[in-house]
Specification:
single chain, mainly alpha, 2 helices, 2 domains, 92 residues
């Protein structure tokens, strides 16, 4: 795929996702304000903050956790194989 098409598609998809998220947030705040007279808005804002922080944390930690898991699995595979190329015999 050409670079111009790829970037254009990324902008459209990212803008669409951001627009949907903002629209859902605005509707949630509107409903919260109508149903509670504005008293629940701090709770809604706190939930939004925790959700955003959680997603950002997962975006950073999940790739690191996957890399760590891969390293552990590779180490276990090499240990299980007994590394016969170096003259060690496999253990029990």
């Amino acid at each position: 795929m050409e670079v111009l098409i790829r970037w254009g598609l990324a902008i459209v998809a990212g803008g669409g996702a951001a627009g949907l998220t903002q629209g859902a947030t605005a509707l949630l705040r509107l409903k919260s304000a109508i149903l509670s007279g504005g008293l629940a808005n701090p709770l809604v804002a706190t939930a939004e903050l925790l959700g955003a922080a959680g997603v950002a944390l997962l975006a950073v930690l999940l790739p690191a956790l996957c890399l760590l898991l891969l390293a552990v699995l590779l180490a276990a595979a090499f240990r299980k194989a007994g590394r016969p190329a170096f003259g060690r015999r496999p253990g029990p």
